[in-house]
Amino acid sequence: MLYKDPSKSVAERVEDLLGSMTLKEKVSQLFGLVNHGQADPIQLVSENYKHGAGTLSFLNSSQTGDHRKDMELLEKLQSFFVNETRLGIPVLIHNEGIAGAQIPGATTFPQSLSVASTWEPALAKKMGEVVKKQLLAFGINTVHSPLFDLGRDPRWGRIGETYGEDPYLVAQMGTAFVKGVQGNKEMMATAKHFVGYGNAEGGRNGGEQQIGERKLLDTYCFPFEAAIHEADVMGIMNSYGILNEQAVSTSKWLLTDILRNKLGFSGLVVADYGSVSHAHSRYRVAESRKETAVMALQAGMDVEQPNHICYQYLEEAVESGELDIEYIDRAVRRVLETKFTLGLFERPFKTGDFHEEIKKKEYQALSQEIAEKSIVLVKNDEATLPLKKGLKIAVIGPSANNSVNFFGGYSAVGTADTTTGDFDRSEDDNFIKMAYDTVITEHRGMLKSQGIVFDERPSPEQKEMIIAMLKKRRSTSNKVYKNMDEFSQIFYPNCRTVKEILEEECGQENIIYEKGCEVNRPIEGGIDKVKKAVQQADVVIAILGGRESMRAPDATAGENKDNIHIDVEKPQLEMMEEVFQLDKPVISVIVDGRPLSNPSINERSKAVLYAWLPAQAGAQAIVNVLTGKTNPSGKLPVTIVKDKGQIPMYASRSPFYIEIDEWAEYIDHDKNKPLYPLGHGLSYTFFEYSDLSLNKEVATDGQLQVTFNVKNVGPYQGDEVVQLYIRDCFSRIARPTKQLVGFARVNLNIHESKEITFTVDMRQLAFHNNDLKQIVEPGKMEVYIGASSEDIRLNDSFNVVGEELIIDRKVFSSNVKIKSNVQIKERI
């Protein structure tokens, strides 16, 4: 059989195999299979998937925590498809990776908003390489990461999974991760969620979105387009929800006209969990599941996941003449191309030693490096930080002696007690919605053995029986741990807390610890104990924030955990109010996946740090910054607002007023500006910018060169993230007040100076005009060099000259060169 010959081209192998497939075998490649964590699911798989499957879900919810058993099960499942089905087509096995492989004991990394705060794409790439190696060593060949959504609403529970608010920053960080995780086409990355998912009205997960087509193309599609053309991303996952009144999962306009024809994507489109069936059950754009399946497939949705609630009817639709076989063949080709490109027919099983991979100290060091570089010092009055020696320190707050809160909701720790059903919100129950639909369609034989027999749908009495049975099964567990805390102790025993490390660094006798309150619940007598501790101390370190989780009762963020409150929870605010009245210097550290506002805490604290979700080495990273072992260098990847009434607020807004930094027109003038702007972040040292030069005229098809110097004029070695913004002064389409077009992290010794040169292709400034043609428009441009989007240190202007240029494709990245100058000794 030609398709089994690796010397043949992928195209030849695909066509040979496609020509050998029955309709049932073709359709089977277009849906997914979920392992629900059964001890031995092979019987169910052999009964229901004897013709094959496209994808297999093997998230943390599928695993027991016994690596040997889990890897053996995974190999057993893959072996069934390779050896027991007629054609031996391997399955694409997927997992998550934005915070490390979602496997117990895998290296955990700070979540995406943390990674973005480093403004260092090379770190995202290195992280992706680790995720790839650990997943492959476990037997997993596909990762549903990263997110290319723009995070512009702090109410949204998943904003911490994004790389921030700015399309250029998101594109740079996400594309670097894709390059790392895909390697030489060793693994399929899945860019998600196409498109506009993070822009839902009210910050409601999966809610309605309204985005004009020009804004959609120029802003929200930009990161995806960059990943397609700069990283050759192999997979795309659709957005939940409704965009411009269209259910995304059945929208030909989005999945074919824009994604493929406009943006140039040629890979595999896979459905976010349940999103195909939602088009019928929630959004009501189709009257039946069969009609939904036909609409989705014709629109360009290749694979339904995690199961086949709708796509099970595709065979019937073809046979009845409701669907042309060409749509089936088109999608199957894409599935097979992906599997051949990944080399699954030659290497269907794990490659590498998982246990050796997770022991590697360099991976742990990388996680800590990202955590340290991601911490953003937003305030440091009176040089309160770094901490002075010999101080008596009161360490307070719900995350001061807790490490679980350091992990993102999609990390191995954060999903330790999730089930597959948690990924699909239901009005009845987070678990029941998906499990019930699955069991009545895929496991009717099992129900029959329990005496539950029905024709089309179960009766109300039978539904009640099935739900009771599912709930009983849900309450039982074959995992080697009981809860998230025990999971953390078993698989991450070296994960420390801030309190523990401060006791080692500063001496146990100098640390007075009191929790004070839970994340969102007071503790009886907790505030009184905190006040007593604070009165004995010279300085207070408050470790505040929330908890990101799909299921935890005290979760304040996560998937389907949107939160109208954008400050720390009320018990923490009440505790801090009492602390501030004691008039001791307070250092507040915010540990949270969301960019919390906390205006009162920010105003009354001497120093404030955003530590985000820093993962397994988070406590050490925080303490290293507090004590000065590490000079903070993170920069905000989002705008921090003062009040939820300001939402949305982001740096690349369209102009409101003549002045470039004017934001809004609220009566309360304190609310006219954000609390902290995009790109803001302080250091223990100080940087001086000088000697800006640039060409004054650039052709529409030319390149701008911007050169300037940065010098460390402070008392510490440090990193500065320099940022380049451009403003189109006049345009027929309103353009952003500042468009981020370049950035670079620059390491500088004391008194050292470096020359920075950015090269910006004018096609990077292209936008869609009134006719939706993508153009580079001549005219005056202003250049801004700064330490943030508002802390501008240098500025000048140039003119784009020549004829208007119509282009098919933007340039997605600027180039930067950093040259060391001769060190200048300080004059005595």
Q: Give the overall form.
A: globular
Tally of separate helices: 25
Give the fraction of residues assigned to helices: 25-40%
Our estimate of the beta-strand percent is 15-25%
Rg, Cα atoms, Å: 27 Å
How far apart are the termini? Answer: 81 Å
The CATH architecture term of the largest domain is Alpha-Beta Barrel
Q: Kindly name the structural category.
A: alpha/beta
Strands ordered across the widest β-sheet: 1-2-3-4-5-7-10
Taking pLDDT < 50 over at least 5 consecutive residues as the criterion, the unreliable ranges are 425-431, 824-828
**Which class of the largest domain in CATH terms?**
Alpha Beta
Report on the structure:
The protein has 828 residues and is an alpha/beta fold. It has 4 domains: 16-357, TIM Barrel (Alpha-Beta Barrel); 376-407 and 492-633, 3-Layer(aba) Sandwich (Rossmann fold), CATH 3.40.50.1700; 423-484, no CATH class; 687-820, Immunoglobulin-like, CATH 2.60.40.10. It has 25 helices and 28 strands. The chain has a 7-stranded parallel beta sheet with strand order 1-2-3-4-5-7-10. Strands 11-16-15-14-12-13 form a 6-stranded mixed beta sheet, sandwiched between helices. Strands 18-26-25-20-21 form a 5-stranded mixed beta sheet. Helix 7 packs parallel to helix 9 (222-230), helix 10 packs parallel to helix 12 (289-299) and helix 11 crosses helix 12. The chain is globular and about 75 Å long.
